[in-house]
């Protein structure tokens, strides 16, 4: 099923020949961050015709958070209302099932996760460099979470009509991938991920599949 969101697989690459020790990865639920968001996006085009009235893609290559940038909030919500399906907002039970899906992927792949925040509409992960390319690992994380939600009949599109035997996708395409080249960078991102739920007014998250980072 075609998604409104254009591909957003972007990596903030290291300078020189630094070794990539880990990755700070973020990805959103369906409808979280549209390709023509006024604050900027990582999309190069707007794939869905019904989103084009809200402007062209707003591609940026910025490593900082764009969430607090000034923008027309009414226009943003109008664009969300134009989506084919409602934007996904996970409840507490769904967040827990997403984390359980991630844990299953960690077990299958041997991935080492140093930090994880499952928010209502997006995810942050700090992941040690792996034999799989990070985009492949993120695809597995998304698929594992979706499968776990479906198994528990908690998928956001659980009762939507199937298209070619599949539910509509609950995740946006692609991910934001920042390479971490030093222990200090890894520790800074781990701290950011730990604080993310608290800043949003949610309880601190402690997932059993998250490993302690040792310098």
Which features characterize this protein?
globular, 215 residues, 29% helix, 5 strands, disordered N terminus, Alpha-Beta Plaits, alpha+beta
Principal-axis shape: globular
- Supply the CATH architecture of the domain at 10-31 and 88-199: 2-Layer Sandwich
Number of helices: 4
SSE succession: EEHHEEHEH
Give the C-level CATH assignment of the domain at 10-31 and 88-199.
Answer: Alpha Beta
CATH topology of the domain at 10-31 and 88-199: Alpha-Beta Plaits
- The CATH fourth-level homologous superfamily of the domain at 10-31 and 88-199: Transposase IS200-like
Query: Strand order within the widest sheet?
Result: 1-5-2-4-3
The total beta strand count reads 5
Report the biggest beta sheet as strand number plus sense, adding barrel if it closes. Answer: 5 strands, mixed
Q: In whole angstroms, how far apart are the ends?
A: 43 Å
| Structural class assignment | alpha+beta
Taking all residues together, what is the mean pLDDT? 80
Uncertain runs are 1-9
General description of the model:
The chain has a domain at 10-31 and 88-199: Alpha-Beta Plaits (2-Layer Sandwich). The protein is 29% helix and 13% strand. It contains 4 helices and 5 strands; from the N terminus they run E-E-H-H-E-E-H-E-H. It has helices at 73-81, 92-109, 134-151, 183-199, and strands at 10-12, 22-28, 113-118, 122-128, 176-180. The protein has a 5-stranded mixed sheet, sandwiched between helices. A hairpin with a 3-residue loop joins strand 3 and strand 4. The radius of gyration is 17 Å and the shape is globular.
